[in-house]
Amino acid sequence: MKNKGQVMTVTPSAAIYFHPEAYTTTGPKLMGRNAAGESFLRGYMAYTRASEFWAQVDNIEHAQAFAQAIQGAGRSEPAKIIDRNNIAALAQVGTLYCPGPGIGLHAWHRAGLGHGAWSLCGVTHTTASAGAMDSIAELLTAPVQPWDALICTSTAVKDNVSRILQAQADYVKQRLGATRLVLPQMPVIPLGIHTSDFEFSSAQKAQARTAIAADNRTHVVMFMGRLSFHAKAHPLAMYQALEAAARAIPANEKVVLIECGWHANEYIARAYADAAQKACPSVRLITLDGRKAEERQIAWASADVFCSLSDNIQETFGIVPIEAMAAGIPVVVSDWDGYKDTVRDGIDGFRIPALMPHAGLGTDLATRHALGVDTYDMYCGHVCSLVAVDVQASTDAFVRLFTSSDLRQRMGEAGRARAKEVYDWAAIIPRYEALWTQLAEIRRAQGRDVAQLPNPWPARMDPFAAFSQYPTSILSAETRFVLARSEASRALAQWRRLAMVNFARDVLPTEAECDAVLKALEHGEKSAMELARTAPAERQAFVFRSLVWLAKLDAIRLARK
Question: What does the pLDDT read at residue 451?
């Protein structure tokens, strides 16, 4: 309690919607969202101003994993767990953070407890998949509110999200004549990194270059990430540019390309090897396993230049160039998606122009994907086949960096400073918490103005409302009951032990509540309301409903008129 005149401060807090798979890089299928989730959780636990760690989980194993994550982060606070049985506790926290864009379903979960009970906060990762696009489009029809937010990790992806929402709005307006549309906040907040993870000593750098047999006349270029020509970055432009650059520098200087990542299968691995052999025979190629920390360190510590000529709509932000900047490595990236925000052309490195067809020329690609003719991987691959990254501009960037150690140093230092100042989790987590505080303020100001409908989730309606025409009659306050038999209590105890009765124990009255109802009826017939009042006020609706169950087991009966 604050003394009079003191300013009341609210510590921003959020419950993390926690499924271990979303916050680990040790799973069987490592994706960018896994790396981002793991990094976020580590950053949140390191830099949050909240004094408690909350999680909403789907099962007890997930709760245990969350507690282990807290301990692994060196925190001593206990895990506070919310599950589906006590979801109302989210109102105590204020915000539920979801590691994806699908906050629409969570808004439906909240609906029965009041749209203003708490805020929801999601984040974009890939937005090209059918599931992601459906989640975004659903934001217009789910009960998402202005005190909710979908964090967009780049200005490019915010534009993409806005286009999906606008197309859905056009449909809703035409179909239903809707004129009032409610949207969540859509702030642009980038993903973060732990910049200290990318600091390497001179000894480590020397050791790494020795490991790949690179002397001081060797220019080491590094690509980090999944080695997927159809879903990450098509490597042919990089190969061609490096070959041209290798031929342009003095003959006693060599170029090495490290591809640090992993191929999904042997077919893709052979495709990479074949393309590199044909496109850049003058470049020595080294493939390292990006899933192994020791091989990642060799790549980061040995590189002179980082390259990612992404051309894929599967990307939205692109965290690896920031990691390269944190390592003090100048970057050569495509002028594409989130790279436009993160890499300053001519300062941290070079952004290479990218070209794609104009709107209206990809309808067949979208239709093939929508109808299942193409898988998501094929859809991404077909689209990227029609995106070009300028090979000549890439070549020029490599030559400039290979021929000027001063330029490499200047760009590397600029990138390192920018990564630490703007993209370290120490800078990003306060932006998340400022957003959560803002959402709470909007919720307090507007949350009570939203009318609660009788059926807040139409597709999950109260069954007694949805199927109200099924029975002969409906239980009402005036419905009158009598005791079915003198031994009703003993018979009821017997029936409760039956598996076909006991399976519903979570929604059944207690023995004490049943006994109170039966005892009241010993003195003659009573109305349903009179019987409900045998229970405490907070349980009366529950007992009122349960009168039908007692009638089902023939412990009580409807009074004859």
Answer: 85
For residue 185, the 8-state DSSP code is B
Close Cβ partners of 238 (under 8 Å, ≥ 6 residues apart) = 223, 257, 307, 309, 394
Q: Where are the domains of the chain?
A: 15-191+431-449, 195-423, 471-558
H/E stretch holding 389 reads strand 388-389
Please give the pLDDT value at position 11: 58
Average pLDDT score, the chain: 94
In tens, the pLDDT along 361-418 reads 999 999 999 999 999 999 999 999 999 999 999 999 999 999 999 999 999 999 999 9
Q: Are 29 and 313 in contact (CB under 8 A)?
A: no
Which CATH number does the domain 195-423 belong to among 3.40.50.2000, 3.40.640.10, 1.10.10.10, 3.40.50.300?
3.40.50.2000
Q: Packing angle between helix 425-446 and helix 32-47, nearest 10 degrees?
A: 80
Q: State how beta strands 331-334 and 305-308 pair.
A: parallel
pLDDT tens-digit readout, 177-227: 998 999 999 999 999 999 999 999 999 999 999 999 999 999 999 999 999
Kindly report, residue by residue over 104-158, the tens digit of the pLDDT: 999 999 999 999 999 999 999 999 999 999 999 999 999 999 999 999 999 999 9
Identify any residues that bridge with 352 across adjacent strands, giving them in sequence order: 334
State the Cα–Cα distance between residues 324 and 301, nearest whole angstrom.
Answer: 10
Cα separation of 276 and 282, whole Å? 10
> For 292, how many CA atoms within 13 A lie in the half-sphere containing its CB?
9
Q: Give the largest Cα separation in the chain, rounded.
A: 108
Q: How far, in whole angstroms, is CA 95 from its chain's centroid?
A: 15
HSE-CB for 442 with a 13 A CA cutoff: 18
DSSP string, 323-372: HHHHTT--EEEES-TTHHHH--BTTTEEEEPEE-PPTTS-HHHHHHHHTT
